[in-house]
Amino acid sequence: MIRFIFTATAIITSSSAIYFYIFHERLSKRVAHNSHLGTLSKAAKPTNLESIPESVFSDEYFTLYDHASKSVSRACLPSSETTELLFTKLVRRNMTAFSRLPQALVLAMASKTPEQKESFKAGYLAALDFEVGDLVCGVYRVVVRRRDRVEFEIKMETVDFVQGRLAISFEECSEEGKVVFCSETAMWKRADEGRKMPLERPVLRWMHETAAWWLIDSGVRYLVDLEG
Question: Model's pTM, two decimal places?
Answer without folding.
Answer: 0.87
